[in-house]
Structure formats: C-alpha cells, structure tokens
Design a protein that fits this description.
It is a single chain. By secondary structure, the chain is an alpha/beta fold. The chain is 40% helix and 17% strand. It has 2 domains: 180 residues, Rossmann fold, CATH 3.40.50; 137 residues, Phosphofructokinase domain (Rossmann fold). The protein contains 13 helices and 11 strands. The strands form 2 sheets. It has a 7-stranded mixed sheet with strand order 3-2-1-4-5-10-11, with helices on both faces. It has a 4-stranded parallel sheet with strand order 7-8-6-9, sandwiched between helices. The structure holds 6-O-phosphono-beta-D-fructofuranose. The site of 6-O-phosphono-beta-D-fructofuranose has 11 residues, from loops.
C-alpha cells in the first residue's frame, strides 16, 4: 500500500511524532511506503511531494513543528480543488491519505472522503477543540508552557501589587486558559465560551486587594469577548480564511480595569511560544499512538474516520461528525473555577 500524508493548519508540537509513527508502522508492520505532501493541502493542490522513509523520520519524536511544513488554505480553494487533489493522489499511486490537522484540515478531509477518496484523519490542535476525541496532541504542551509562564508572573505581580493579565491561545475554546489557569493558580479565567462582565471583573479585582492580597493573575483566551454593550472591543474584521482577526482582548481589558479600579495592570501575550519547541512526553505518546492507529486503520480500510482518544484507548470516530461542531468547554467545567476565582 502507498500512504500519503500532509500536515495542515497551524502547526503544533507532536506533528513530527505522528509522521514518524506513520512511516515506522507502514514500513515495519505492513511493508508499505509513505509520501508526504508539503505545506498541507497546498502541497496536494500543487503536486509538491516528497518521499518519507525511516532514515528521514529518525530523531523526529522530540522535534516540534513539522518537517513537511504546514499552511492554511482558504476553504473555497479547497472545495474547488477536490478534483485536482484526487488527480494528484492517483498520479502518485496513493491508496489512502492521512491528513493531520485541526478543524479546517479535517473539514477538507471529510469533503474529500465524501467524494469517495480513501481518507483517515488525525486530529491535532493546541486549542483542543476537535469534537469526538477527549484530547488532541499539542494541547498538553501548550498548557505546560502557559503554566510555566504564569507561574513566573506571580512573584513580579506581588512585588509591584499589580494585576497581570496573560493572553493565551484559544480561538473558539477556552481549554488552554481553563487548564493553565487551574494549574498556575490564576485568580480570574476568561474564556470565549462565557462573555465577560467588566463590572464583575473589576469587582473581583478590587475585592481581592481589599482582602489584603497583593496581586491578581488573570488568564484570558485570545477569543474572549465582553458582554454586549458593556465595554468596547476593537473589531479587526475577518481574514481570508474566515477567521476573526484578534485585536488584543487582554490589553483592552487591562486598560479598562486600570481605568476603573486605579490598580496598575500589565499584559503578557504568550502567542506562538505556546506552539513552539519540543512536545511534552504526554503529547509524544498521544501523537505516536495516533500515527500508529491511523496507519492500522488505513490498512484495514476504515476510511472516512479519524483516530480519537476515548479514556485511555484509541478509537475511530467519523470525520463528518467530528467537524460538525467544535468541542468547547462545557459550563460545568467552567464552574469548577469558581472556588479559585477572586
Ligand atoms: O488553531 C490553533 C491556533 O494556535 C489558535 O489558537 C490561534 O488563534 C491560531 O492558531 C493562530 O494561527 P496563526 O499561526 O495562523 O496566526
């Protein structure tokens, strides 16, 4: 069998570990070969391919990023290009494609699958917002990085009796904010799932200082928004991929807190540092298991599925169902932060 792979969308730690697992499983267990398409779906549309073999993937387990490169491609270009993708796959004699990616990549995978192309998906994203899987790899690494950074902010915040806000990634879902906030003992966690009330935020800040505490640490997801009509948030419009352009919610929230409470506020935006560097051991294992099981599923012709973590086991989940909605943080998980807020 010949397997095609690609890594699409924003990169995340563990992509290389999946590639290594796919190649090793394909070659060693099945005598199959693997070719990779560079820069996500763009490589498939532009027929930009490279052979992936064991010497090439040696040493990739711990390496962040993706040796195949990654890119975002506009949804319309993907829809229009399904026929072209099929042609390129046939031209290379690819029997099954394993696209590794987040919502956008897996949506295109589901389209391709519905056109009859054999596909087995692998979910990835630091945001952890793919439905059908308990976790995606990259998330644990991002939370670990964010936690380390927030840990460091406590001492400087206390020294200066400041409010320190940390903006973390999380476009539609607040999983990183929730977990890093709990792990690092944040006093305030603001996620996209629940628009924040600036009055309530300022009340919490003031009350905490009034109780004699010397600092406030707040974690804010980049996708958070204020309750309508409560405070302005600059509108950045929408980019070519249909994504809202962020304008720095934590910075704007911080300015408002400072104005209303008189407390000094500083903001740290963690940005892409959360996506860079080596994966945690948890993500190396999850990525390796996803690569292994995707390759097994490919050989067993379980097409139109994506590998998924359920409990401690790896299962298969229909691609079309996985991309039907995003997995946001449920209310009961958000409520768990109440005891630690303020
Ligand atoms: O989807 C993962 C993610 O890291 C989001 O949290 C973030 O909004 C986005 O990617 C950033 O994408 P880019 O690297 O294209 O700016």
């Amino acid at each position: 069998m010949r397997i095609g792979v690609l890594t699409g969308g924003g990169d995340c730690p563990g992509l290389n570990a999946v590639l290594r697992a796919v190649v090793r499983t394909a070659e060693k267990q099945y005598g199959s070969d693997v070719i990779g398409f560079r820069n996500g779906w763009r490589g498939l549309l532009e027929d930009d391919a490279m052979k992936l073999d064991r010497p090439l993937v040696n040493g990739l387990l711990t390496r962040g990023g993706t040796v195949l490169g990654s890119a975002r491609v506009a949804p319309q270009r993907l829809r229009d290009g399904l026929g072209r993708m099929r042609e390129v796959l046939e031209g290379h004699g690819v029997d099954v494609l394993i696209p590794i990616g987040g919502e956008g990549t897996l949506t295109a995978a589901a389209w391709l699958s519905s056109e009859g192309v054999p596909v087995v998906g692998v979910p990835k994203t630091i945001d952890n917002d793919i439905d059908g899987t308990d976790l995606t790899f990259g998330f644990d690494t991002a939370v670990s990085i964010a936690t380390d950074m927030i840990d460091r902010l406590h001492t400087t915040a206390e020294s200066h009796q400041r409010v320190l806000l940390v903006e973390v990634m999380g476009r539609h879902a607040g999983w990183i904010a929730l977990n890093a906030g709990l792990a690092a003992g944040a006093h305030l966690t603001i996620t996209p799932e629940e628009p924040f009330d600036i009055d309530e935020v300022c009340r919490l800040v003031t009350a905490r200082f009034d109780r004699g505490h010397r600092h406030v640490i707040g974690v804010v997801s980049e996708g958070a928004t204020p309750l309508p009509g409560t405070m302005p948030l600059r509108d950045g419009g929408v980019d070519e991929f249909g994504h809202r352009r962020f304008t720095g919610v934590a910075q704007q929230l911080g300015e408002e807190i400072e104005r209303r409470t008189g407390k000094e506020v500083r903001t740290t935006v963690l940005g892409h540092v959360q996506r860079g560097g080596t994966p945690t051991s948890f993500d190396r294992v999850l990525a390796t298991r996803f690569g292994l099981h995707a390759t097994i599923a490919a050989h067993e012709e379980q097409f139109g599925q994506m590998v998924a973590l359920r409990g401690t086991g790896i299962t298969l989940f229909p691609l079309a169902d996985a991309v039907a909605q995003l997995k946001t943080v449920p209310t009961d998980r958000l409520e768990e932060t109440a005891a630690f807020t303020g």
